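Run log, item B.
One chain of 84 residues. Sequence copied directly from the ordering sheet:
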Amino acid sequence: MNRTRSRIIRFLLRNGPSTCSQIGRELRVSPSSVRRQLLLLRDAGLVEHSSARFRASPDRVQGHAAALAGTFQDASCRPDTLLP
């Protein structure tokens, strides 16, 4: 995951629902850049959007992280995926 997206998720988990401007001001990233990253996070199911605010759910983020970790574990255990 890109560093800005990680920072945005951490910000939302710490601060609760926030606007693009609030996040951008705190992280020193332009609101348009924040919005672009938030839309990617929304499409991935990591954040929700309502009433001009975005929010991240710890359970949802943790679930995605566990699923991602599982894909690495599955790949590393399969003999056909091992490097020579």
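Observations after the first pass:
- The longest helix spans residues 58-77.
- The domain at 3-79 is CATH 1.10.10.10 (Arc Repressor Mutant, subunit A).
Flagged for discussion on Thursday.
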